[in-house]
Each structure stands twice: as structure tokens, then as C-alpha cells.
């Protein structure tokens, strides 16, 4: 079955985009590790903040507040390395 002009044009545009897109920057192992650690801490921080907003227990709120402070400190250390 013959393909229509639109599908051929879309295929051409996709191939052209792949060909002309700049290559991803090459990162060292240390840079990759820092990026991964930063993402992990950011996700943990987001989760802890969401749990803090949802909890009513004063003991749990205190624990989560301390955990958030520790995660923020960790994130600052990762950024300054």
C-alpha cells in the first residue's frame, strides 16, 4: 500500500532533526555521579515536603522538618563540590 505525502514528510522531518541535532555533551564520570546524586536528593526532598504537608502528627512533622533540613544541606554540598 502506498504511503501518503504527509507520512513521507513527517519521516523526512524526523530524519532531518536527528541528523542536525547537536550531540549530547560528554560528561565525565564525576559529573554524571553529581548529577545523579543531585536528582536523587531533589526527589527525596520533594517527597519529604509532600509528606510534611500531609501529616498532622507533631512528632512526624518534626522528624520530616529535620530530614528536609538535612536534604537541603546535602543538596547545597553537591552543588558546591
Sequence of secondary-structure elements: HHH
Q: If helices are DSSP runs of H or I spanning 4 or more residues, what is the number of helices?
A: 3
What summary fits the major beta sheet?
Answer: none
Please report the total strand number as a whole number: 0
Radius of gyration: 23 Å
Low-confidence segments, given as residue ranges, are: none
What proportion of the residues is helical, as a percent range?
over 70%
Strand content: under 5%
Described by the principal axes of the CA atoms, the overall outline is: elongated
Instruction: Assign the structural class, choosing from mainly alpha, mainly beta, alpha/beta, alpha+beta, or little secondary structure.
Output: mainly alpha
Q: State the end-to-end distance.
A: 59 Å
Average pLDDT metric: 87
Assembly category? single chain
Question: Could you walk me through the main structural features you see in this protein, from its secondary elements to its overall organization?
Answer:
- With 81 residues, this protein is mostly helical.
- It has a domain at 33-81.
- The chain has three helices and no strands.
- It starts with a helix and ends with a helix.
Amino acid at each position: 500500500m502506498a504511503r501518503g505525502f504527509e507520512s513521507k514528510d513527517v519521516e523526512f522531518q524526523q530524519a532531518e532533526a536527528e541528523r542536525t541535532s547537536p550531540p549530547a555533551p560528554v560528561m565525565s564520570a564525576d559529573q554524571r555521579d553529581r548529577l545523579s546524586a543531585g536528582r536523587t536528593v531533589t526527589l527525596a526532598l520533594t517527597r519529604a515536603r509532600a509528606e510534611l504537608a500531609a501529616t498532622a502528627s507533631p512528632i512526624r512533622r518534626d522528624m520530616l522538618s529535620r530530614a528536609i533540613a538535612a536534604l537541603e544541606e546535602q543538596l547545597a554540598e553537591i552543588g558546591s563540590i
